[in-house]
Amino acid sequence: MTRRSVLTGSGSALPRRALGNEELAKMVDTSDEWIVERTGIRNRYIAAPDETTVTLATVAAKRAIEAAGIDAKTIDLIILATATPDQTFPASATLVQHELGCNGGIAFDVAAVCSGFLYALGIADSMLRTGMANRALVIGAETFSRILDWEDRATCVLFGDGAGAVVLEAREEDSVQPRGILATRLHADGAHNHLLFVDGGPSTTGTVGKLRMRGKEVFRHAVTNLADVLVEVLGDAGLAIEDIDWVVPHQANARILDATARKLGLAPERVIVTVDQHANTSAASVPLALDTAIRDGRIKVGDLVMLEAMGGGFTWGASLLRM
Predict the structure, then answer these.
(1) CA distance 188 to 5
(2) Which residues of 263-300 are buried (b: 16+ CB within 10 A; e: fewer)?
(3) pTM, full prediction
(4) How far apart are CA 68 and CA 74, in angstroms?
(5) CA distance 89 to 16
(6) Domain boundaries for CATH 3.40.47.10 within the chain
(7) Which residues are catalytic?
(8) Residue partners of 199: CB distance under 8 A and separation at least 6
């Protein structure tokens, strides 16, 4: 018998306000055609003042808990991946924990930007498998609109706000095709900080700062890193690309998704794409896309699913799980 982290429920949340390309073109020098051609994005959601990373994370968490059919009080681990916490401290995860009424367990944030959910998932899996916790809530939530320069059309058109969450439960699995997380690989390379970063922080400028990015360089690294880490994870699991039912990638840019799929020889119909609907929601994008595909019936119990992401830092990673 092998103790594994099995995904038992998922949920997501979006702000009330949808911001389409046509409306955005009235705010910044751009057009629907320009955005769609370069990114594939048609819409994104922008948080109102009363909508924060914590409020979105809490809604997504409650939906995941409901889908799992459990009592929130049985959750003994919460990991929230975010680059836009409500406060510098305490961790936003503790605020979500309090809202859910499961105080007393482990709760902390992870900062790995767009790869944050993969990092959080890997940490939760390790803690569940070693017995430090039995039931985990893993969340990716962002309000990236708060750190965008709305005069920079190269970046402000790319991002949106949202949250996604999953419930993981430690179970003993001994079947030929066990459910749960099968393999995870995580990486980072701080040499590329200058390519995708925020130009502020408590210890440097005393401000939140704004997002800055060199798009062409990020694109090149993303395609290579995502393809490589996917192959690494398959190798660890002893499986081949043909075995995968679905790939749920970080929803950064439709061109990156297409280029990565071509590099790996993946059929486009096996890649979950929501970037057109939600834009890039950073740490929220993978769980948001995953929940979308679970709820519309594409991803089913027993399917082999690869999650992958790359973010500022650079950080990148992938995780393979059987639903």
Answers:
(1) 24
(2) ebebeeeebbbbbebbbbbbbbbbbbbbbbbbeeeebe
(3) 0.97
(4) 12
(5) 26
(6) 2-173, 180-322
(7) 114, 250, 280
(8) 205, 209, 210, 212
What is the C-alpha separation between 283 and 287, in angstroms, rounded? 8
Residue in the block written with tokens 């995502």: 226
Paired tokens of 89? 């401290």
* Residue that has been written with the tokens 């910044």 in this structure: 28
Q: In the chain, at which residue ranges do the beta strands (DSSP E only) sit?
A: 2-13, 17-20, 43-46, 77-81, 106-110, 135-143, 161-173, 180-188, 196-198, 211-213, 246-249, 304-311, 315-322
pLDDT tens track, the chain, 323 positions? 789 999 999 999 999 999 999 999 999 999 999 999 999 999 999 999 999 999 999 999 999 999 999 999 999 999 999 999 999 999 999 999 999 999 999 999 999 999 999 999 999 999 999 999 999 999 999 999 999 999 998 899 999 999 999 999 999 977 778 899 999 999 999 999 999 999 999 999 999 999 999 988 998 888 899 989 999 999 999 999 999 999 999 999 898 888 888 888 889 999 999 999 999 999 999 999 999 999 999 999 999 999 999 999 899 999 999 99
Q: How many residues does the chain have?
A: 323
Buried b / exposed e over 180-212, threshold 16 CB at 10 Å, is: bbbbbbbbeeeebeebbbbeeeeeeeeeeebbb
Classified by CATH at the fold level, domain 2-173 comes out as: Peroxisomal Thiolase; Chain A, domain 1 (3.40.47)
Omega within 30 of 0 (cis) for the link into 90:
yes
Q: Is 254 exposed, middle or buried (0-12, 13-18, 19+ CB in 10 A)?
A: middle
Which class does domain 180-322 fall in?
Answer: alpha beta
Measured distance CA(22)–CA(33) in Å, rounded: 9
Q: Which amino acid is at 232?
A: E
d(CA 276, CA 279): 6
